[in-house]
Amino acid sequence: MQISDEAMVPIKDTREALYKMLAAQFVYLQEVPKGADRIPSRTFYLWSVDLKVLVRKLIDDLRLIMRNLLLRGRTERQGVALQLEASRGGEQDISQEDRDALRQYRQREAKLENSLNYLDYMCMSLQQFSTQQLS
User: Fold this and answer.
1) Do 83 and 43 share a structural domain?
2) Environment class of residue 27 by beta-carbon count within 10 Å: exposed (0-12), middle (13-18) or buried (19+)?
3) What is the pLDDT of residues 82-114, one digit of tens each?
């Protein structure tokens, strides 16, 4: 298999990856039989990629992930809404348990924010690539 040779990956792993990408509609497959019998061992499999479609799909997938992270952040905020409200008067007014919950929430919130920033950067990079290379 030429793809596995070029990628220096075992044929089994290459097939698995290609069929996963086919299922996700990242690549396309065209079968070209050598004869009328259409025997798989005597068939050429031509794989192709439409870069414009691929980039558009990747951007859409990244935006979906960003949406899910925003929803997760909202859910996390609702879970500590009472502690956040109580902490506005000062952290000395809340219990140690609530302070621990707030500290953990702030750590999760920072991770979500970092993830959103990275995904946004990836979206912008793909859009720039699409504009410059695929026009």
Assistant:
1) no
2) middle
3) 777 777 766 666 788 888 888 899 999 999 999
